[in-house]
Amino acid sequence: MEDVETTEIIEMPNFLNNENIATISALVAQKDALDQYFKERTDSILIMFIALLIRQHVLFIGPPGIAKSYLIESFCKGVECRFFARQITKFSVPEELFGPYSILALKEGRFERVTTDRLPEAEVAYLDEIFNGNSSILNALNSAMNERVFEGKKIPLECVYGATNFTPEDNANQAFYDRFLFRFLLDYIQDSSAFEEMLISGAFEGAPPVEKAAIDDLRAKLDLVDARAMVGVFSHIRELMRVNSIQVSDRRYKWALQAVKAVALLEGRSFCRKEDADILQHILWSDKKDIPMVATIIMKVTSPIAADIEEFVRQAMSIRTELNALDPSDKDATKAGQAIKGITDGCAKLKLIKKEIKSYIKNLEASGTPLRVKDQSKVEGILGSIEQTRKEQAARIVGSDDEDEDA
Where are the domains of the chain? Predict the structure, then answer.
């Protein structure tokens, strides 16, 4: 069973009133309910709440059939707001999103849309397959998301949650792509027990919805969160990003600081901590090939221990990829023999990595350096995943020893 960590409010700043405290508790209840239901989606769920607090936009990228739509719709039901949702196709026209032109207004010589139940009147929007939109749709969305303006008029739009199976490669869509502060890759459920829980789960039942006015009042307290400790953190991250030829705009760093402050506020803190910057892993990359490097840079600055753990993960994943390419049932006896030896050696390497991780953690504990709670949970998942991979690969070899050495 997946071990879902619930959010704990550790202390309440003096600038929060009783209503703010109640709002944080309600948001945390919503977050925990989503965490329990949607498997392996903890980080993406947190991002949705952070985006709501800072009035920014989120793009979820992943293959069909991973419940992107259900996750976003379930989240939006937990907030009392005007909501608009639409799946965009290459045949979609602006009227589907922004409303048709009023016939009466046209007769009077005015170009005026009927925006009832359309995006210009929404506070939160979900747009599926967003990059299927033509240039007229994306250009209008660009202004709506960046300036909160549509056809010269202010609109109440706060957050757009977009979903796509791909990221744009043409320069024409890059400006629109940049409107999404958060970009998050989603994949199919990896853990077997989490997959099994998903199979037998019923419909999602969240906590009672949070009033929009209460969220607005809490949002007003963001500027009171002390983020001075993050200046050096951001500067260090920026320096390492430049060394690795990853360019990020000053504007994106500025927006990212608001996200870090929101992490602290959602945990009931009046100040930011270094590890709050972990969320930058989903903000500072543009090209998917840069994701591993960005994650490594941020972890090196915010938690060197987490960076070391991630290195173990990369080693295990590399071995798994190599093993998956081997075929012990090859008709060529020589190739089959080589594959069997390769799998045997690979399983031994996985066992060694598992032993090294346990030794690493043991040495940390002996030195009085405890793991963060989130890292403890991650280590447990990594050890379980390595052992599962080892057993699956060993099962491909007839007569192999499948016993684990508990180090």
Answer: 303-394
Least confident range of 50-59, 67-76, 103-112: 103-112
Residue 86 near residue 161 (C-beta atoms within 8 A): no
Nearest to 162 by CA among 294, 44, 30, 53: 44
Alpha carbon distance 178, 287 (integer Å) = 11
DSSP letter string, 210-221: EEHHHHHHHHTT
The reported pLDDT for the residue numbered 310 is 80
Which helix or strand (DSSP H or E) is residue 68 part of?
helix 68-76
pLDDT in tens, 345-401: 999 999 999 998 888 888 888 887 777 777 777 788 888 888 888 988 888 886 545
Q: Contact, 264 vs 254, CB < 8 A?
A: no
Helices (H) and strands (E) in the chain, counts: 15, 9
Residue 163 to residue 87: CA distance in whole angstroms = 9
Whole-number average pLDDT of the chain: 89
